[in-house]
Amino acid sequence: MAKNPTSSGGKAASAASSAASARGTKAASGVLKLPGMADVIADAVQAADSRDTGPADPASFSKLLERLTAVHGGFPPVYEQTFVSPFITTLQGLGEAKFKQILKQDPNREGAAGLLFDIAQAVLQHGEGYLKPSTRAFQEFISDLYDGFLSAADRRGVKEPDLGVVPPLAKWGSPDFGPYTWPVDATASFKVQAGVVNMPPANATAGLVSWAALGHETAGHDILHADTGLQDELAQALAASQAKLGHGLSEYWSERIDETASDVMGILNLGPAAGIGLIVYFRALSQTYGGDGKLRSDGPANDPHPADIVRGYLAAEVVAQLKFKGAAVWAKTIAAETDKDRGTIRLAGQTLTPTLARKSARLVAQTLVSHKAQALENHALGEIQNWADADEAILQAARLAMRHDTPLPPTPLGHTLYAAHLVSAAVVEALTVAPGKGKTVAELQARLIQDLNVLHDQNPSWGPLFVVHPGDLRRDFFVPAEWRAARAKQTQGA
Length: 494
Known about the structure:
mainly alpha
C-alpha cells in the first residue's frame, strides 16, 4: 500500500506507539485473538442472504439511450471521455435491432448482454444518485486500489499498462454472483476504456468484510488484465516453482493464475485485512449456501478458483512477506484460522498432506510477490506495492478514530491516508475488538462510508480536471521529509 516508496520505511513510529492500545491482543499460542469473528460472519451472512437486486435493467433501447444521455454531462472529464461517451456512441451505432439481438443471444445475462447492462448500470447509478453515499465510497475504494498499482508514483521504472489506465466504475447488483469484475479487455467490446466492479446492493450497508474482498477484484483481476502478457508470464513462473513437488501442482496453480495472483495483489495493497477477510468471507458464504461454515478443502478440477483451504495458506504466506513488523504474527494467525477448517485436502483429484499444501502455497506466494516480470520491466509485484510499518501506523490511528468517534488524525509527513487504510482499519477493528467493547459491525461500516466520502470529495479524478491517477499529483522533493518536518515544527513554535 505504501504509495511513497522512497519514504515508507517505518517513519511513523510515534503514530504506531500512540495507537498501540488499538491493536489486537495475542493469545498464549502467539496468534491474535479475533473475538469479533462470529459477529463479522453474521453480518456477512445477513448481507449474502439479501435478495435485493438493485435497479432493474432498462430493456427499452430508446429509454436506455435517453437516460444515459441525460446523465452524460454529470461525469468528470476522465470518465466522460473514456467511459460514458464511447458507450453511448457504441449503442447508437448498434441501433435497436442489434441491441435486441444481443439480449436474445444472452437471455441469462452472463455474456454480452450482462456486460452491456453492467456498463449501463455503472453509468446510470452514478449519474442518477443510486445509493449515493455508498456508491461514492465504493468508487473511492476501488479507485484507490487501482491507483495503487498503476500510478506513476508506484510504477517507477515500469511502463504504463498496455490496456486500461482509468480506474473501474462501481455498480451495485447481481447478489447471486457476489463481488465480481468485468476487466478492461471485456469492456473494450463496447469501446469503453475502464472496467466495471460489482457488489451486491446489500453490501452498501452490511457485509463489511466483503469490502476487503474488493482487493482481489480490483487490485487483482483488473490490473492483471491491464498488462499484456503478465498473466502468462506469472503462470509460467508458478508452474516452474511447483515442478519438484509433483501431484499435478504445476498445472493446478498455473491454470488458476488469474484468481491466485488476484489474491496476492489484494493483500499487497490492503495488508493482512485482505487475507483474514478472505477466510471470514468464505465461511460466511458457506453458511449462506447451506454448507458447514468452513473453508472448502476440496478443489475440483473444473473450478477456476483454488480450494479455499490453500487460499488461506497462500494468504498467510503472502502476509509473511509484507514489510511491517507485525507480519509474522498476522501470518501465523491466518494460518491458524485456516488449520481450524482443514479437512482432507484434494486438489483436482490429487490428495495432499497439510505439509505439502502449505509448502506449495509458500512457493506460490514467494513467486508471485518476488518474480521480476518482463511485462513489468523486470520489476516484481511486491516492489510496486507492499504493506509497510507506515501503513500499519495509519491503520491503527484510523481504528482509534473509528472507535472513539473522533476525526481522522493527520498522517506523518511524507505519508498519505488512503481508502485502503480505512477499509483495512474497519475490518481489523471489527475482528479484534470483543463485542460490547467497541462499535458494532454496522456502526463501523457506517463510519467507513462516511470517511470514504470525505476522501472522495478530495479526489481530483472526480473534479473538473482530466486526472487519471491521483497518485500522479505529487511533488518530488529535494529536501528529505525529516528536515521538512523539523522546519514545520520550528515554524509552529515561532
